[in-house]
Design goal:
50% of the residues lie in helices and 22% in strands. It is of the alpha+beta class. The chain has 3 domains: 2-64, no CATH class; 84-183, PAS domain (Beta-Lactamase); 206-254, no CATH class. The strands form 3 sheets. It has a 5-stranded antiparallel beta sheet. The chain has a two-stranded antiparallel sheet with strand order 1-2. Strands 8-9 form a two-stranded antiparallel sheet. Strand 3 (87-91) and strand 4 (98-102) form a beta hairpin. The longest helix is centred in the first third of the chain and has 60 residues, at 24-83.
């Protein structure tokens, strides 16, 4: 016995060849046995075909879901670009590739995918910190959020507050990241200037021999130097701690 094939060389049955025998009953038994084996094989082929078809249908359905999710993500991204004044960007699930970036004249725009975006847009000294926060967001499938330095469109270094959310599929796996980044350069520069002026004021206050205390128009104590504490006989441990909070607490207890 051997399989019978159709024009596409697919098995459709079995060909049975019988040798001459003197016993008709033996011939009949051989035929029955051959037909039974052929039927079993045909049943097995049917089961295999059914399993393959079910698997194919599942793959088609999954592909349609992915295509639908991508279509929705495209629509959401276009809506975000239209409605936002911030920089908007899209990243691959592992952040290895930035697929799109609208820089809003803050950083350079591009519609071409890039796998060197980290080196192109983030100063070398900040890349490790940015990568660390990205890796944690990927691991936890949570929002990426970070204020960091960035190379501006004119080549100078500015500051941005960046936030990206992961888009998940039906299995909870990350499909893509949508992000928005705002230009906080002026705020950061003003903050740095204020911090510098505060440190300068403190240094000047400590360099004079007079006791100095600075009070706001509302009557709130802003700063005092160590000489002021000594003049007013603050305890040595308070002076040595150089703690404004401890000094104010001690002074309040004396009144």
């Amino acid at each position: 016995m051997w399989p019978a094939l159709d024009a596409n060389e697919q098995p459709v049955g079995a060909i049975i060849q019988l040798a001459k025998t003197a016993n008709l009953r033996q011939d009949a038994a051989a035929v029955n046995e051959a037909l039974l084996i052929a039927g079993l094989r045909q049943h097995e082929l049917t089961e295999v075909a059914q399993k393959l078809n079910a698997q194919l249908q599942a793959e088609i359905a999954e592909r349609k879901q992915v295509e639908e999710a991508l279509r929705h993500s495209e629509e959401r991204f276009r809506a975000l670009v239209t409605a936002s004044s911030d920089v908007v960007y899209r990243m691959s699930p592992d952040w290895q590739e930035r697929s799109q970036l609208d820089g809003r004249n803050f950083i350079a725009s591009t519609s071409k995918p890039s796998r060197t975006w980290l080196q192109d847009y983030i100063p070398a000294a900040d890349q490790a910190q940015v990568k660390k926060v990205i890796d944690e967001a990927i691991r936890t499938r949570s929002i990426f959020e970070l204020e960091h330095r960035v190379v501006q469109v004119d080549g100078s270094v500015g500051w941005t507050y960046s936030r990206a959310i992961p888009l998940l599929d039906a299995k909870g796996e990350i499909v893509e990241w949508f992000g928005a980044a705002s230009d906080v350069t002026h705020r950061k520069e003003a903050q740095d200037l204020a911090d510098y002026q505060k440190r300068l004021l403190e240094a000047l206050a400590e360099s004079v021999l007079d006791g100095i205390i600075i009070v706001s128009p509302e009557g709130r104590i802003i700063h005092f130097n160590q000489r002021f504490l000594k003049i007013w006989n603050f305890p040595p441990e308070i002076i040595e701690s150089k703690s404004d909070e401890a000094a104010l607490r001690w002074a309040a207890n004396q009144t």
